[in-house]
Amino acid sequence: MTDVSTLILAATSLVGLALAAVASLKGWQAYLDYKRLELASHVGDAHLPPAGGRIEIADLRERVRKLEAIAAGIDL
Q1: C-alpha 29 chain-centroid distance
Q2: Is the pTM higher than 0.85?
Q3: Are 66 and 76 in contact (CB under 8 A)?
Q4: CB burial of residue 12 (10 Å; 0-12, 13-18, 19+)
Q5: Tell me, what's the pLDDT at 21?
Q6: DSSP letters spanning 30-56
Q7: Is there a contact between 72 and 65 (Cβ–Cβ < 8 Å)?
Q8: Chain centroid offset of residue 35 CA
């Protein structure tokens, strides 16, 4: 290859890389905006965990109570 064709290839590659970087950054910004909107929509429910979480916590408390009873030798 000659020096001119090498320079053209390098410049084209650099422009392509720059375009890919700009497109990636715009996509990342759009994703972050989406996540901000998603978090902002859940602000009203911040003090209560989801119902599934409350059920899971109640189940874990029941299991702990049973294990403590077994450890203490109490028959349920």
Answers
A1: 14
A2: no
A3: yes
A4: exposed
A5: 97
A6: HHHHHHHHHHHHTGGGTTS--HHHHHH
A7: no
A8: 9
